[in-house]
Specification:
Distance between the termini: 48 Å
Radius of gyration: 30 Å
Number of helices: 22
Largest sheet: 6 strands, parallel
Bound molecules: 5'-O-[(L-methionyl)-sulphamoyl]adenosine
Structural class: alpha+beta
Length: 673
């Protein structure tokens, strides 16, 4: 039996979870579920990293002791994973006694073996990373005076730090780790990250400071308690603590070293260089694989606190659930699916809510959900709600069966090796084949012709394809597939299904009572791009057609936009428009005209003036305090002597302008996309 141990990084308890953290955990959960499906003996670990100066500082800011602080934050991470349906087997906290014991044991062991010695370490230190950087890794400090240098990750100033502490003889392992990376291409994935590590190691490795005198919130060095163990070395040790390095040798033997560490690329070097060398020094084997995935940006921008563009996964899922009416857990599945499908694992990706809505509508509602919607009502109406009997294959049946056999192997080859994007594409190819099958085989035509047996066989085949797809999708859409399984009425639980069950064409039990439910993925109706017909009517100047996307921009001078033809634009072109939520601070009429209002608005921290042609509909006093949506990067224009620095958005209801406003309160400055 294959044994499979997968880990996420342990997350710092000084941060709020965002899409980047969630991504690693969702990917780890998906592979853990996939391997269980394939019949492997799986252990899936996540947890929290609770020591170090940053956490000490956060606690101080909150007026708490570090222990009180971590005890408050760690459960929030656990709750997040529970809410997202994460199937981890353990959750480790580095402040737990089991971890403190192992960290001290291994540190002592490294010292006893001569791999750790006392010395003075000097170098450029980034407090945010809790790591030293070599000079050539630093970047110039933005806005800094001349010779300022910053850490390549946080772009914050590095500090020249000299301290007497213990050093790990990393340099002595340089040849060993270089050979390992060269000889084992699978050890570091993807290839780009492997190459980065190769060049890093080829450039030489310096001994590493592995204790801190100045950091009090940490695990004491066992042979010199005035010092604490460097938080990064200590944190890495969690991976062996949790599987019982000291207290469960059987389990440790089962899962070590067959581990796959999933990490973001920023922390790759800790996992694929420092960690294996440290393990080698204490006489343990190196991890089997380190998978360093890419970074998410949001609508083209790096996520940062100052930009306020952190994607909160819970808010994002809630937004989808509210817009669609889907169950929250199903919306969470859609979020997971989108992240894994959109960007090949290992590459950087850009997140947008639009992509989530698109994947929900096109892939989940149209391709997957619809397959059920097209079959279940026919089974209800013509077969008394019982799954009809299969029949010897004819016509297009054979092609569907072949596709079913192929998809299981293809998906396993991809998803089982972390290629989620292509694995999902394979499954979607199969869903496409099933949709095509029902179109071609046309059960409704067989029913019309009185050939009930053939209609039944077609419906059986389609539902059998749904069963197989449902098993394959269970690791990616755990909640939604459970609902589909319930609707199919299959008596054995989905959780007990294995890949082998997906390989058995014809395992769907005939005669079982199906249990139709509400649509799983209710489509989100978005104001879509104009249809060709809509465009034509617009170009004739028909005024208020059905085309909601036309005429929504009210120029600042109040002249309603004419019925000009709207051509399609690319997403990049759209992204050039900076739409923001703004708060109206003041409003007054513009002298000499009864159409225009002059608004003083607040966008984030800044204020500006805007002129809008909405005086007919809105009395100035009604606007103060309201949140509106504006185009923030429009070239300023003078209107009746007043400079308008932007344009507000309104819908055109005949001749009336109707202001657009957020559905619920959001801070001014929030991006609209
Ligand atoms: N505590 C350390 C890990 C110790 S593991 C022994 C840590 N924690 S973290 O909370 O800062 O980051 C956790 C993970 O989130 C890292 O893998 C990091 O790469 C990932 N991400 C943080 N921002 C990210 C994106 N914008 N995009 C994708 N992943 C990102 O580091």
């Amino acid at each position: 039996m294959e044994r499979f141990y997968v880990t996420t990084p342990i997350y710092y308890v000084n941060d709020v979870p965002h899409i980047g953290h969630t991504y690693t955990t969702l990917a780890a959960d998906t592979i853990a579920r996939w391997k269980r499906l394939a019949g492997a003996d799986v252990f899936f670990l996540t947890g929290t990293d609770e020591h170090g100066v940053n956490i000490e500082r956060k606690a101080r800011e909150a007026g708490l002791s570090p222990q009180e602080w971590v005890d408050q934050i760690a459960p929030q991470w656990q709750a997040l994973w529970k809410r997202l349906g994460i199937s981890n087997d353990d959750f480790i906290r580095t402040t737990e006694p089991r971890h403190i014991r192992v960290a001290q044991d291994l540190f002592q062991r490294a010292y006893d073996r001569g791999a750790i010695y006392k010395g003075t370490y000097e170098g450029w230190y980034c407090p945010a990373c809790e790591a030293f950087y070599a000079e050539d890794e630093l970047v110039p400090l933005a806005g800094g005076a001349g010779d300022g240098w910053a850490c390549p990750i946080h772009k914050r100033p590095v500090e020249w730090t000299a301290e007497e502490n213990y050093l790990f003889r990393l340099s002595e392992y340089r040849d060993w780790i270089l050979r390992k990376i060269e000889q084992e291409p699978e050890f570091i994935q993807p290839e780009t990250q492997r190459n980065e590590m190769l060049s890093l190691v080829r450039g030489g490795l310096r001994d590493l400071a592995v204790s801190r005198l100045s950091v009090k919130w940490g695990i004491p060095v066992p042979f010199d308690p005035a010092q604490t163990i460097y938080v990064w070395v200590e944190a890495l040790i969690n991976y062996v603590t949790a599987i019982g390095y000291l207290d469960d040798p059987d389990r440790f033997g089962r899962f070590w070293p067959g581990v796959h560490h999933l990490v973001g690329k920023d922390i790759n070097r800790f996992h694929s260089v420092i960690w294996p060398c440290f393990l080698q020094a204490v006489g343990l084997l190196a991890p089997k694989q380190v998978w360093a995935h890419g970074f998410w940006t949001v609508e083209g921008e790096k996520m940062s606190k100052t930009r306020g563009n952190f994607i909160d996964p819970i808010a994002e899922i809630t937004r989808l659930a509210e817009a669609s009416g889907a169950e929250w857990a199903v919306a969470a599945d859609a979020f997971r699916y989108t992240l894994l499908r959109e960007v090949p694992f290992g590459q950087d990706g850009d997140y947008s809510h639009g992509a989530l809505v698109h994947r929900f509508n096109a892939d989940l509602a149209n391709d997957f959900g619809n397959l059920l919607n097209r079959t279940v009502p026919l089974v209800e109406r013509h077969f008394g709600g019982q799954i009809p009997a299969p029949a010897p294959s004819e016509g297009p049946d054979g092609a569907l069966q072949r596709a079913a056999v192929e998809v299981v192997a293809a998906a396993d080859a991809r998803i089982g090796t972390f290629d989620f994007t292509r694995g999902l594409a394979e499954i979607w190819r199969f869903l496409g084949a099933a949709n095509k099958y029902i179109d071609e085989a046309a059960p409704w035509a067989a029913l019309k012709a009185g050939n009930t047996a053939r209609a039944g066989a077609i419906l059986y085949n389609t539902l059998e394809a749904v069963r197989i797809a449902t098993i394959l999708l269970a690791p990616v859409l755990p909640a939604a597939t459970q609902r589909v399984w319930d609707q199919l009425g299959i008596p054995t639980p989905l959780a007990a299904a294995r890949l082998d069950d997906a390989r058995k064409w014809g395992a769907l039990p005939a005669g079982v009572r199906i249990r139709p439910g509400p649509p799983l993925f209710p489509r989100i109706e978005t104001p879509s791009a104009p249809t060709p017909a809509g465009r034509a009517s617009a170009s004739r100047g028909a005024g208020r057609g059905r085309d909601a996307s036309r005429d929504t921009l009210i120029p600042a001078n109040g002249a309603a936009r004419g019925g000009t033809e709207m051509s399609e634009i690319t997403i990049e072109e759209f992204k050039r428009i900076d739409l923001r939520v703004a708060e109206v601070l003041e409003a007054k009429r513009v002298a000499g005209t009864d159409k225009l209002l002059e608004l003083r608005i607040k966008i984030g921290e800044g204020t500006r003036t805007l002129v809008a042609g909405i005086a007919d509909e809105y009395a100035p006093e009604r606007l103060v305090g309201r949140k509106i949506v504006v185009v923030a990067n429009l070239q300023p224009r003078r209107l009746r002597g007043v400079e308008s620095q932007g344009m507000l958005l309104a819908a055109n209801d005949g001749d009336r302008a109707v202001l657009l406003a957020p559905d619920r309160d959001v801070p001014s400055g929030a991006r609209v996309s």
